[in-house]
Amino acid sequence: MKERQKVFIAVMGVTGSGKSTFIQTATDSDEVHIGHTFKSCTAAVSAHTLSMDEYDVTLIDTPGFNDTFRSETEVLKEIANWLDYTYRNPPHVMLTGIIYMQSITDRRMYGSTLRNLKMFRQLCGESPLRNVVFTTTGWGTAEKSGELSKALENQESLRSDPDFWEPMIRRGSTMAKFEDTRSSALAIIMSIVERNPILLKIQEELVDENKNLIDTAAGHTVNEEMKRLEEKYTQDIAKVQKDMEEALAARDTEYHAALQEAKENYERLRDEAQRARDSLQYERRNEKRRLTNEIEGMKRQLERDKKKHEEYLELKFKAQQINDDMKYEEIVNKLRANGHLLRDEERQVLEMKIQELEAASAYGGASVNGKKKKGKGTKLLVGLAQVLGSVTMGLLGFPMLFGDPIGTLASIF
């Protein structure tokens, strides 16, 4: 009997482009959550399977670019971590293709869409573009609303405009229509399954070249855009500040209040851009140096005060400390046991967080008014989860913090 072939296809695109609808239609499953607004319903990477002839097909649903609640860096990190993990570890999965979805009725065809396409292209690399199928959605909506001719114009623009799909089509990418039927979805999938698997550029960079995410081509693009936005908002803040001073001098309190609100909004946007840049790499050199110095300082202070505090701590907290530390040690042991699944930069974060918490705890940072705080292990897990994200925490053995973005792979492999 001929062995069934396993095929992995990623479904990508902006929020609201119809990724989850496509997967639900193809798999004939109600388990895929679908959004009916521009709010994203796909928070993490998830896998959905179906059988077609001699193929076992896994469709990978990904968070949308232009996500409602998450920055481009967070979305990139989530997708990159999944691609990293599945290629780095047995059976070393490579995608057979990517279905990139775009609503044909979406009027937001410029700005962030162009940035996302640039990031997508650099995530793929040049050669893998031949396995990309650009798929348009929303044809039924366009026909019902009498905008079919406009939709056809949009399709031609996507095909021929050098700012959109034209350069990638020249390198082998193809186009398809998803017409909201299962037969349409399966036809698109069948156009991919017989192709040879591809190694994406970001997988090569992260795994084979052991680069940090910020040093990859896609990461660099996002970082530069966030840097540009940060500088723009800083300039906007300075301008508003000047206008506020003039309004204050003119005693125009109403205008001053409006400017204050605008300034706070710009400050929020600037801070978001800064956080987005920082999240691309877990430890910058100066931050790592600062944390290391703080930890060493805590250790030296602990040694100086050790004799004074040792007896008091032992008598006061012994029973509670043993109980708490045993639970904490189990957590740390589990984290370290799975650490080999991570990239070097992630392992450094793991060890840094453990050392930072242990140093703070040993010095007395884990006690308040003579009573030891509970939940040391919880504090460690929450701190790691905020930095590393759902895929990495799943690898470390704690998928329950976010759901289980990689758990469905066990049955697939």
Automatic annotation (TrEMBL):
The chain crosses the membrane at residues 380-402. Keywords: Coiled coil, Membrane, Nucleotide-binding, Transmembrane, Transmembrane helix. InterPro entries: G_AIG1, P-loop_NTPase. GO terms for molecular function: GTP binding. Residues 9-107 form the AIG1-type G domain. Gene3D superfamilies: P-loop containing nucleotide triphosphate hydrolases. It comes from the Eukaryota. It holds the Pfam family AIG1. Residues 223-315 form a coiled coil. SUPFAM superfamilies: P-loop containing nucleoside triphosphate hydrolases. This is AIG1-type G domain-containing protein. It comes from Arthroderma gypseum (strain ATCC MYA-4604 / CBS 118893). The lineage of its organism: Eukaryota, Fungi, Dikarya, Ascomycota, Pezizomycotina.
